[in-house]
Amino acid sequence: MPKLHPVIGPVDTEWGRSMLARRALATAKIWRKWQRRAPAVTQSLDQFATQKLAEIDRRNLRRHLIDTDRQAGAIAIRHGRKLISFCCNDYLDLSHHPALKKAAADAIERHGVGAGASRLVTGNHPLFAELEDRLRALKGTEAAVVFGSGYLANVGIIPCLVGPGDLLLADELSHACLMAGATLSQATQFTFRHNDMNHCAELLKNNRMHHRHCLIVTDGVFSMDGGLAPVEDLAALATDHDAWLMTDDAHGIGVLGAGRGSSFLMDTRSNVPLQMGTLSKAVGAYGGYLCASQNVIDLIRNRARSLIYSTGLPPAAAGAAIAALDLIEADPEWAASPVRKARQFARALNLPEPDSCIVPIIIGDETTALAASQILEEQGFLVTAIRPPTVPEGTARLRFTFSAAHMDDDIARLAHAVRDLGLAA
Ligand SMILES: *Cc1c(COP(=O)(O)O)cnc(C)c1O
Q: pLDDT digits over 51-64, tens only?
């Protein structure tokens, strides 16, 4: 056994050198083995992604994220060019409103940037109570709960209400996150033909009695078509069959029914016990919500996994949403103006009168839709082509959305450009 030298250390001894060499060799072996393996794993993963992308490309469905600098007044800067955006959900241009910016900045100043934890731990900053109280009042319900986003709301709410042994009926054009929530719930799931009350009634008649609870879900305003759900008829059907109705009013709040949404188009509030929506569109901020009875909201607060296991909405978003509700409630005429502008556009092209801020022109194939969007962009209008799987196969379209900030002249010029494309009369 060689003697260890206390000052120079083992490296300078025969034994020390050999020990270090052996260690280095072993490390190198492991390293080489890892190096040999790693590319193989990466290769199969990359191959998988490449093949999938090639398939998406082949069908002209490849999507790209394009840097877009959105500015006040429905302006979008793309590739250095200033475009008028007709494809944003910021219907009231509130995302750039000085009052919202100030409220967001104040909220950051007081409460910080991030919520720091789930709302059930320490992320429940005081703005949540105020925002929920405002939403509850706007929607005429006992209570409200705010989520991180509309998507998180739907995937959280639905599995709290129905599960295995229950029945879930969804309009076939319901938003992807309603469908995701439905799948997560593991309830028996059927879709009814778009807005087809006879089909919905038939599904209820044939299936309701075999299930414990039943939830019917639909968009209040269909996001890619702009049409309304027959909320009154659905509410009546739901009552007749002891089913619960939930509407996703992402495109209704702020702009329909004096800003109160698609359950407020009649003289009295429609009987929708579960009013869900987002603060990310007309409200100009971010976040999702559910308005319902106190007991339902308490249940959601205790059970919705996307609320419990996800960090609370940032204070700035909550503060801005409150400021937006102030503006919407103060001026319902202005809140209704995007729908008026959508109608103005539709009238100029002899299209059916829209009930929302959304006007689709269905083109059919992806290539033509992309080309049409490209031509409009060259003329200074940003109108994104919407393709499957966002919309059903064969229904690629241009989806025009209207904002309170759009000028009448610009709408007229856009209608002209669309007519020149041969896309409408
Ligand atoms: C945009 C949208 C959502 C998602 O809301 P986010 O807050 O953006 O997550 C949900 N439902 C419908 C109908 C939507 O259009």
A: 999 999 998 889 99
